[in-house]
Amino acid sequence: MKINKSLSYDDVLLSPHYSDIRSRSEVNIGSSLDEARKFSLPVISSPMDTVTEDAMAMAMHTVGGLGIIHRYSSPDEQAWAVWKCRESGVAHPAAAIGVGGDYLDRAELLVLKGADILCLDIAHGHHIMMKEAIETIREKYPYIHIMAGNVATKGAFEDLAHWGADSVKVGIGGGSICSTRIQTGHGVPTFQSVLDCASSELAGDVKIIADGGIRTSGDIVKSLAAGADFAMLGSVLSGTEQTPGPTLRSPTGKRYKAYRGMASKEAQHDWRGRHSSNEGISTTVPYRGDVEDILIDLDNGIRSGFSYSGARNLVEFHSRAEFLMQTPAGQSESGTHILGRK
Question: Domains (ranges, CATH) in the chain?
Fold first, then answer.
């Protein structure tokens, strides 16, 4: 059996290039899902029930990104969240749907209430039910942007593109609270998946969204350099004021919020009433304040990343970026290692 080598974010660094950029304000990090849907921040908040409802979607819009309202609620509740976004001036309200059950009825209600982007969101997107759902949604709503996923291989990316997806979420098993690789033995490091999908002739026309394993602005920069058009974030945005759910206090007075994978036992029980899988975990994270502060930091980090390659926009960055593999010693050197000294 042939074993292919696969790289993760920590395995690589970007080589700095000569730059004549005098200020980060000269850098445009904007990206687009299509000609009509353009964003100044290439970041999308994940459609998880502890990450994105209307408050997060509005905050993402404020800083130039995109928030996708999760599907783990009743169709009416989700549609109401979309409607609140539309009333609040969100240019492209986005909502997730599944590929079975009431997904068509849910899609119809969401579009009626103003959804401009539908995200067909399942764990293993290279599947016959995904094919049927994309084709059905495409025929019924030719003007809606269809985002679909998740997939891990170039072949899967190309299939979803041929089926009618406008953008594809790339990454399986790489999330901070995803245990798919542990439970099933399947998955590809997200960085490698992005590299492979970006080598397709369809990349560029069909947008690539790196989803999973992203912890820092540096990882976002690496995913964009590898060929992604956007990065999708969950844990990086978790615990903020705009995430769903109450802010709780521990006996010592520390504040925290819930964060869980959508394939965790707790999430499956809450929205399905049964335990159908165990490919995620449920936990709590410290309360982190307003998400806008995090997003501004990410914006600054991405701009700096572009400037180190001498690139003023995403097109230039894709063409100028050059990766180096780093050894375990290099990985250690890359961290803030002074904190580990005795």
Answer: 9-246+289-330 (3.20.20.70)
Per DSSP, 202 falls in state T
pLDDT digits (tens, 9 = 90+) for 162-178: 999 999 999 997 554 55
Paired residues of 255 in beta bridges: 249
Q: Summarize pLDDT for 88-144 with one digit per residue, the tens.
A: 999 999 999 999 999 999 999 999 999 999 999 999 999 999 999 999 999 999 999
In DSSP terms, 207 is beta-bridged to 167
Q: What is the pLDDT of residues 50-92, one digit of tens each?
A: 999 999 999 999 999 999 999 999 999 999 999 999 999 999 9
State pTM to two decimals: 0.90
Task: Kindly give the residue spans of alpha helices, DSSP state H, lying in the chain.
Answer: 54-62, 75-87, 103-112, 128-140, 154-163, 180-184, 190-198, 217-225, 265-272, 291-308, 314-320, 328-334
Q: What is the DSSP string of 217-239?
A: HHHHHHHHHTT-SEEEESGGGTT
∠ CA 53-197-213, nearest 5°, is 45
268-273's contacts with Cβ under 8 Å and 24+ in sequence apart are: 270/49, 270/72, 271/49, 271/72, 271/73
Q: Are 230 and 200 in contact (CB under 8 A)?
A: no
Span 286-314, pLDDT tens digits:
999 999 999 999 999 999 999 999 999 99
Q: Please tell me whether residue 154 adopts helix, strand or coil conformation.
A: helix
Report how far residue 111's alpha carbon sits from residue 172's, in angstroms, rounded to the nearest whole number: 28
The two tokens of residue 181 are 């690789």
- Which residues, 6+ apart, have CB-to-CB distance to 322 below 8 Å? 14, 15, 17, 309
CA 289 to chain CA centroid, Å, is: 21
Distance (Å, whole) CA 302 – CA 319? 16
